[in-house]
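## Example record

The block below lists the input lines for one assembly entry, exactly as stored, with component labels intact.
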Amino acid sequence: MTVKGYFSLAQANFTSTSRQRYGQDYYDERMQASRTVMIGQNDDEVGRFTMSRASAENGTKEGSDLPPDAKDEDERKEKIDPRPVDPISWFGILVPPALRSAQSRFVNAVEGSIPRVATLAKELRTIEIEIGRARKAIKKLDKG
Amino acid sequence: MAQPTAYKDRQFLAVIGDEDSVTGLLLAGVGHVTSPPDAQKNFLVVDQKTETSAIEQAFDLYTSQRKDIAILLINQHIAERIRHRVDAYTQAFPSLLEIPSKDHPYDPEKDSVLKRVRRLAGE
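Predicted structure tokens for the full assembly:
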């Protein structure tokens, strides 16, 4: 599970180099999520998790093939109001590079490992149920 | 209110973790506070002073009461404090994942998902 690596690395980095404590005292009480989860459905009824990103830190980076004024832009505005700010700004304007690298590592985890592992866990759950059913069927056959 | 089966409404990543884990994840932009008067957070910062009942309450809130959580992350050492609840959890959504923390190395032997794998392969 790569989540591990990302996390410990990010966290080690995060605390060793920053003198000030970047923690809950600075959280914005009205924060709005700029990264949200989408649950897709494929043929075998297994949920596939992906992260979607609201126009947050870099505004224009969002979406790949959609024109910026596509209709989902409007939907997004409705949902996310006020417009999300980059959480790193909670901690001031001049933040240490370590905090930025912690942020990018956590972003990697949130966009990569976490949805991947969540999807795998879901698949495992499905397989578990199938195995359970198969075992029951075998038991029945054994009795008969 | 959303139906329990309406997985499309599940869009948030929730976290029950120590301060660094929560801070890191919030830096990644997953933090969300619903509009007042409710103002529900999708994260709980846990330290030594946090009562186990508060952890359990948050676990219930994110797994049962709220229908807008897609994935719940919990630090493994915190999961240990409500292990019976975590191991007994079988819902499809939200997906529950145990994650390591800075101060507590991750132990695969304790992970509820890996335990289930072992049970499947073992018997």
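Strands of chain B lie at 12-17, 43-45, 69-75, 95-99. The interface with chain A takes residues 7-8, 10-13, 19-33, 39, 42, 45, 70-71, 73, 90, 92-93, 95-97, 99-102, 105-106, 113, 116-117, 120 of chain B (CB under 8 Å).
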